[in-house]
């Protein structure tokens, strides 16, 4: 029996006061949280006064696109979405994307920042085939269980407008990809019913989750929200469907927004945001008050879509709080919840958090409160994955 006690920290759990407590871990699982837990034979890891957080969850990124860890590449795309998509498509071959070494470097950075789980939207189309899926898997395998990576088969260049893509999405699901993606069913494919027929049909056949990029704004985007919600309810997929970005939600009138927020909550559709650039950001406080789940992630990280992104989910939570104009500690904690428990709910993790029975994925930082950890995003003094120490003093330990 392998037993460890993380001793002397202060445990953060959403909606509860910080608790000075030890965390007892046995065979990679938390078995007790409280004072003076453990046996005389337990290994002791002292974290005096440090804030203990659950392992962070990166709920939306594009590992296959990253240039992280390679030479600096000046940004070459224009501002419109279509130009950024074309730039990515035109240059990925030239730059050797997807690249297993770069994906590995980015995952190592994420681990060093305390991320335990990652959802990556990986391009699937006739030009790249399933090479991105394979590259992300190869990189994750190199990390030897220090991070868990789930992939979304993502039709970046459309489903119906890019012949052969639907067949490749199915092939990805046959090969073990857990989730199927979509993109702007109206604005991109110009056939929202047709695209959703494909996406929900494949999800039903293969028992997959769904995560749809929805950039379309205003009333058009709101209409697509409603279509996704209706399909989710009809298919009984509550808790397994997400809308990423969802720019329309903060753009429509207040009464319409209120109705959509309530419907998202009732249907069990998660809203995922990156709070990137000046793109619209969903009203996190209203969504959570209604019971709707919110998760967050970086979106692109140092890729052909933009040069920014650090891989640090505490920093990303800070951006989410800032863009929501959160100032009070309890509001800032909502952003941290999106980067932890919200992402865990999205991924359907059977057990998560600083509770008995959950895998011992945790992070220790020097911060007085959870809000301070978000605002200052200090170095990670300790990171455990399944009870295994993988980061000390901000440094990723050798595998």
What does this entry look like structurally?
This protein is an alpha/beta fold. The chain contains 11 helices and 17 strands. Strands 1, 2, 3, 4, 5, 14, 15, 16 and 17 form a 9-stranded mixed beta sheet that branches. A hairpin with a 7-residue loop joins strand 1 and strand 2. It is globular, with a radius of gyration of 21 Å. The protein starts with a strand and ends with a strand. The mean pLDDT is 96.
Strand content bin: 15-25%
Oligomeric category: single chain
| Major β-sheet profile | 9 strands, mixed
Count of strand segments: 17
The helix/strand class is: alpha/beta
Mean pLDDT reading: 96
Helical residue percent band: 25-40%
Supply Rg: 21 Å
Helix tally equals 11
Q: Gap between N and C termini, in Å?
A: 22 Å
- Could you say which overall geometry the principal axes of the C-alpha atoms support? globular
**Helix and strand element order:** EEEEEEHHEHEHEHEHEHEHEHHEHEEE
- Low-confidence segments, given as residue ranges, are none
Task: Please name the defining characteristics of this protein.
399 residues, alpha/beta, nine-stranded mixed sheet, eight-stranded parallel sheet, 11 helices, globular
Summarize the structure.
The chain has 399 residues and is an alpha/beta fold. The protein has helices spanning 81-91, 100-112, 131-142, 165-174, 192-206, 218-235, 254-267, 284-290, 313-323, 329-347, 370-376, and strands spanning 3-11, 19-26, 29-34, 43-46, 51-54, 56-61, 115-123, 148-154, 179-183, 209-214, 241-245, 269-273, 294-296, 362-365, 380-385, 388-392, 395-396.
């Amino acid at each position: 029996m392998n037993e460890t006690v993380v001793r002397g920290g202060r445990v953060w759990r959403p909606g509860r006061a910080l608790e000075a407590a030890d965390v007892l871990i046995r065979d990679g699982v938390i078995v007790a949280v409280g004072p003076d837990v453990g046996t005389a034979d337990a290994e002791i890891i002292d974290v005096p006064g440090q804030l203990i957080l659950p392992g962070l969850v990166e709920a939306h990124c594009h590992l296959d696109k990253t240039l992280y860890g390679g030479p600096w590449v000046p940004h070459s795309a224009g501002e419109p979405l279509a130009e950024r998509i074309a730039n990515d498509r035109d240059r990925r071959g030239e730059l050797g994307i997807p690249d297993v070494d770069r994906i590995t470097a980015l995952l190592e950075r994420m681990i060093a920042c305390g991320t335990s789980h990652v959802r990556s939207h990986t391009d699937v189309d006739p030009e790249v085939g399933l090479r991105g899926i394979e590259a992300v898997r190869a990189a994750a395998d190199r990390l030897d269980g220090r991070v868990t990576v789930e992939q979304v088969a993502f039709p970046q260049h459309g489903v119906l407008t890019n012949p052969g893509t639907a067949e490749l999405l199915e092939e990805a699901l046959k090969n073990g990809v857990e989730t199927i993606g979509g993109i702007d069913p109206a604005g991109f494919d110009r056939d929202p019913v047709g695209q959703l027929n494909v996406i929900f049909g494949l999800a039903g056949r293969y028992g997959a989750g769904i995560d749809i990029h929805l950039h379309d704004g205003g009333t058009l985007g709101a209409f697509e929200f409603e279509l996704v919600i209706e399909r989710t309810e009809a298919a009984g997929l509550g808790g397994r469907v997400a809308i990423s970005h969802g720019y329309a939600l903060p753009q429509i009138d207040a009464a319409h927004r209120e109705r959509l927020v309530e419907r998202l909550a009732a249907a069990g559709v998660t809203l995922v945001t990156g709070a990137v650039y000046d793109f619209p950001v969903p009203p996190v406080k209203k969504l959570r008050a209604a019971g709707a789940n919110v998760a967050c992630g970086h979106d692109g990280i140092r890729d052909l879509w933009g040069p920014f992104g650090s891989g640090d989910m505490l920093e990303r939570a800070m951006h989410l709080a800032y863009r929501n104009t959160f100032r009070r500690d309890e509001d800032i904690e909502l952003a941290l919840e999106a980067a932890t428990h919200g992402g865990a709910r999205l991924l359907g993790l059977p057990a998560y958090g600083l509770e008995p029975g959950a895998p011992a994925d945790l992070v220790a930082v020097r911060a007085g409160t959870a809000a301070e950890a978000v605002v200052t995003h200090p170095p990670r003094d300790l990171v455990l994955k399944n009870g295994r120490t993988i980061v000390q003093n901000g440094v990723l330990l050798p595998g």
